[in-house]
Amino acid sequence: MSATIRAALAGILAVSAAACSADSGVTEGSAIEVVSGSSAPVPGSDPASAPSPATTDDTSGPTLPGTTLPTPPASTAPETGPSDTDPPVEPEPPETAPAGTGPATSDGPTGTGTIPAPGPGSDPDGLGDALYPELGNPGIDVQDYHVRLSWDRATEELTGSVTLTIVLLDDRDEITLDSAGPDVDAVTVDGSPAEFVEEDVELRITPDAGFAAGDEVEVVVEYHESSPASYASSGVLGAGWFNSEGGSYVLNEPDGARTWLPSNDHPADKATWTFEITVPSRVTAVANGELVSTSPGPKGDTWVWRQDEPMATYLIQLLTGDYELIEGTGPDGLPLLSAVLRSDTDVMQVYIDTIPEQMDFLDDFFGPFPLDHYGLAMTDSFPGLAMETQGRSLFSRDDFSSGTLGYVEQLLLSHELAHQWFGNAVTLGRWQDIWLNEGFATYGEWLWLDHVGLADLDAQAQSALMGRQTSSRSPAAPSADDLFGFETYQGGATVLHALRGTVGDDLFFEILRRWAADHDGTSRVTEDFVKLAEEVAGRDLTRLFDDWLHAVRPPTSYPTRD
Ligand code: TRP
Ligand code: ZN
């Protein structure tokens, strides 16, 4: 198995892929035009200037997690993280949230589950996220977004509005939204024009009347943005708005949505969504959810998509281009809808056809598929891109040009499918809880690769465990630049494998099924998972999570029940 591939989902491939495409030029039909905005470089553009020494310092090129690990320099350690130098590090008691995060279990917006409460000294306009303090906005719970956008690839002009239906959680004079790019033209609150100020990353809205706890208000933000751009976020992974040859796509994890959409851009606040996207005729616009209608108008065709199940901002899918929509049916009649470029319909069919089989396999372990639809979207982006955009995972067509189901294809498809349970149905409550997404999706990927005979489960677990012996972070304490690294992916999966060894297969998979089912539609933190695991297992698991989740160096072998 190739090192490059193994690293794909650890974000490391983004670096090597960027290096490859810069060396060899773009392959036929897949030119990515990188919009160079005001900000940082983008995967696929200039690998030499990619940020984050922690992930780009692997001068040996692509690395295989478990063999040679890129070691983050001590200087990148966050104040809240464990020591980088002297493993094993004294683990934090699991019932205590890592320092600086505030209580992890305060009540959040109605129906959204656990939301972090701001810690002392945190950004007054944020939600107290230790890694992304300015993301999210206090005192608001967005119920629904109605996004109306016009996009023309030729002029690179994005214009439109977003209507947010918001429930107020406290009395306040103003609300803020995360907005880092849009030029706001007007704001109304319940139909009346409201004063607003555009700051660096916040849109501050101050209607005369203020807001009262429990009020439901409708806020409309009209805006435009010339040449919306992508930028490097969380290490080497790009986020924001990307232009492709015949269209565009967005990548929003962790902080990209606010660069093109004023929003409550934090995963603790999930909402339902309508996307009404106008594009020149003959261009297709694709977004999460069900296609409601398409209608011609003076500015082109308007495509309306409705996402009825709660979704976090980082999971938005928005694609424009020459896409064909391919319908299908999954297990138990689940509607499938995939989006592939018209030129790719033949080659992509084999991947679309494998969805029901993969779902049938994973639902034995994770419980019934938690969403009301699924599909694949194959865009023309940099290789290595794979994102669990809700209800329709997003991939790069370059990784699927072979038309065969090899290791890379199986890994990427199963990983993003597993995220639909872990990340999408139940969503992380704070960015530091990213192992709840990536560790779990990696475990799903291990199960599938084992099932199809491409990699033995125990061998994958052993290799990840070896990697952890030379790593300098625990899965539970990533830095903002390391959200998508070895520790949260393979490291997170080692925590699950150790839990499995400790409680046995039946209880382990019961825990996973309950995690997805009990918390479907909400945002949850690590402490919630520990609590559920202990409840299902009927025993205290402090020691296990101390040794495997919170410690930098885990034990050298997995626990077994024998
Ligand atoms: N969540 C993605 C995954 O499945 C990784 C990811 C995060 C990503 N941000 C990204 C991928 C930006 C591509 C671009 O593992
Ligand atoms: Zn993932």
Largest sheet: 8 strands, mixed
Range of helix content: 10-25%
Helix- and strand-based class?
Answer: alpha+beta
Shape: globular
Output the number of helix runs: 12
* Strand numbers in spatial order across the main sheet: 6-5-9-3-2-13-16-15
Number of strands: 24
Distance between the termini: 31 Å
Overall average residue pLDDT: 84
Taken as a percent bin, the fraction of beta residues is: 25-35%
Radius of gyration: 22 Å
Stretches where pLDDT is under 50 for at least 5 consecutive residues are: 1-112
Report on the architecture of this protein:
The chain has 562 residues and is an alpha+beta fold. The chain contains twelve helices and 24 strands. The chain has helices at residues 3-6, 12-24, 53-56, 345-353, 355-366, 407-421, 435-451, 457-469, 486-503, 505-518, 526-537, 542-550, and strands at 32-33, 140-152, 157-168, 175-178, 183-189, 192-193, 195-198, 202-206, 216-226, 230-233, 237-244, 248-251, 271-279, 284-287, 290-297, 300-311, 318-321, 323-329, 335-341, 376-379, 386-387, 393-396, 427-428, 523-524. The protein has an eight-stranded mixed sheet, with no helix packed on it. Strands 1, 10, 11, 12, 14 and 17 form a six-stranded antiparallel sheet that branches. A hairpin with a 2-residue loop joins β5 and β6. The longest helix is centred in the C-terminal third of the chain and has 18 residues, at 486-503. Residues 1-112 have low confidence and may be disordered. It binds tryptophan (TRP) and zinc ion. Zinc ion (ZN) is lined by residues 9, 415, 419, 438, 441.
